[in-house]
Amino acid sequence: MKLQLALALSALSGGALAKQAGTLEEKWGYDWPFSGIASFAHLPVEKCLVDTDSSFDIAVIGVPFDTAVSYRPGARFGPRAIRDASMRQTSFRGFNPRAGINPYDSWAKVVDCSDMPITPMSNEIALKQITEGYEELLERNAPFTKNGTVHPRLVTLGGDHSIVLGALRGLHGIHGPITVIHFDAHLDTWVPSKYPSVWGESDFTHGTMFHMAHREGLLSDKCVHAGLRTRLSGSDWGDYEDDEQQGFARIASDDISTKGVEGIVAEILERVPRDDPVYISVDIDVIDPGLAPGTGTPEVGGWLTRELIQIIRGLEGLNLVGADIVEVAPAYDHAETTALAGAQIAYELITNMVKRGVAVIGSSRRHDDL
Fold first, then answer.
1. How many Cβ atoms sit within 10 Å of the Cβ of residue 204?
2. Cα separation of 133 and 153, whole Å?
3. What is the value of pTM for the model shown?
4. Cis peptide preceding 342, ω within 30 of 0
5. Which residues contact 181 (CB under 8 A, 6 or more apart)?
6. Residue 182: enclosing H or E segment and its boundaries?
7. Could you tell me which residues come within 8 angstroms of residue 274 by beta carbon, excluding any fewer than 6 positions away?
8. Which of 56, 158, 258, 273 has CA 20 to 30 A from 134's CA?
9. What single DSSP character describes residue 151?
10. Residue percentage of the chain with pLDDT more than 70
11. Residue 80 and residue 331: Cα distance in Å, rounded?
């Protein structure tokens, strides 16, 4: 009798606690945009690299690495700054009117995977960590899966631009050659031997990683730069010739004046096949430094934030298998303007992924496995 009474009291107590928990959730469970621990857009945080049971369709991942820069350091703090700037985004107020969807409240499970712990002591070790981190996460099965062959997609918050090499290595293992749409003031296909030193050459920098990716066979021959306004080395067009040999076409920043947003979107879509695996890499310095001063290698004469966002929106039909926003260096920022731009760009990229639907395995892979 005493045991039955104890069980009954325990059941009543459990019910009361459950009711109380529900009441407490209603009272205290909501975060205002300015409150709560800073995850991207208040998304749930998972330690995806540690928790092997973690699964997601789309994840934001920080890669706080900046020791491959050639000018100003500081992008290791970019992921933190972009997350802080994203706090006005929530699933409650996440509907994107231009796309007609709320990317945080749709078919996709979207999470914040926290950061990869990248060493600042050795670029060689760092590149290995970045590569293995992407390989680990991209090999997971996404919740929205068919026969176990749908892979998740990552939106990376950098970090300097060199981190894209690890992402491309991981994606190539799944999709084959990747078509990169590269928004940047600079080519980033520089040939290391053109920058000699008595100490030896350095292959892995934030200006050579696409050269390395081409050399490793990671890229298609349909890649494109957009927003260029960089100076070249030497006294001729050699850098452009090297760039073309690596499979890139070029759209200059000045082209926005003559072609407009629609013309640039059309030029990209004419070159990039709709169903090929596409990676969009956004160096924040593609935006004019008057609007995005917090970056490592600023170049005057860039695009407006609005123009870049409109171009990204125009690419929503592509088979986007991954993306990044890199080179946000908050130490040089003013009133979060650069980080705010990065957060909005990430939101637009996630929207494109969700609206297009599940990413298709690259044409070099077997579609009958899907």
1. 15
2. 13
3. 0.91
4. no
5. 223, 224, 226, 268, 272, 278, 279, 280, 281, 315, 318
6. strand 179-183
7. 317, 318, 319
8. 273
9. P
10. 89
11. 12
| CA separation for the pair 110, 167 (Å, rounded) | 18
* pLDDT at residue 243 in the model: 93
238 vs 369, residue with greater confidence:
238
- For 84-118, letters b (16+ CB in 10 Å) and e give ebbbebbbeebebeeeebebbebebbbbbbbbbeb
pLDDT above 70: residue 238: yes
**223, 184 in Cβ contact below 8 A?**
no
Q: Which two tokens stand for residue 4?
A: 């039955």
pLDDT tens, position by position, 128-161: 999 999 999 998 888 875 445 688 999 999 999 9
Bridge partners of 226, per DSSP, are: 183, 251
Task: Judge residue 249's burial from the number of C-beta atoms within 10 Å of its C-beta, 0-12 exposed, 13-18 middle, 19 or more buried.
Answer: middle
What's the angle, vertex CA 23, arms to CA 20 and CA 26, rounded to 5?
A: 150
234 pLDDT tier (thresholds 50, 70, 90): confident
Query: What pLDDT score was predicted for residue 364?
Result: 46
Q: Which two tokens stand for residue 102?
A: 């709320």
Residues 6+ away with beta carbon under 8 Å from 144: 57, 107, 108, 109, 150, 358
- Between CA 77 and CA 84, with CA 79 as vertex, the angle to 5 degrees is 100
Nearest CA among 207, 345, 213 for reference residue 284: 345
Give the pLDDT confidence of 28-69 residue by residue, as tens digits.
Answer: 888 888 998 999 999 999 999 999 888 999 999 999 999 999
Per mean pLDDT, which range of 89-93, 211-215, 254-258, 278-282 is the poorest? 89-93
Compute the Cα dihedral for 250, 253, 254, 256 and give only its sign: positive
Closest to 210 (Cα-Cα) out of 175, 250, 174, 261 = 250
Q: Kind of pairing, strands 179-183 and 278-283?
A: parallel
**Mean local confidence (pLDDT), 199-223:** 91
> What is the average pLDDT value for the chain, to the nearest integer?
90
The sign of the CA dihedral 200, 201, 202, 205 is positive
